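ok so dumb question maybe but i'm new to this and my supervisor (M.) told me to 'just get the structure for Molybdopterin synthase sulfur carrier subunit' and walked off. so i did the thing. is this what she meant?? sequence i used:
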Amino acid sequence: MIKVLFFAGYRERLGCDALELNTDATTIAALKAQLAERGDLWRQLLQDRKTHTAINQAIVTDPAAEIHPGDEVAFFPPVTGG
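this is what came out, is it supposed to look like this??
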């Protein structure tokens, strides 16, 4: 099982802040593809190249980054500053 977290606008738009999933996905790309099957909004947000991802609170940029049972994966939009 992995824990998936959604932050900021993603949490608001999806109406979901966390999921616990039993999944066979072993990479971020596979996890995103699985979550995208939930509908158009999920697909749109998770397949946006600007989406930031963290595994166990460490930012990852490679969609082939491996995930393992017990990991925490977080998705969040790009941050803007002023």
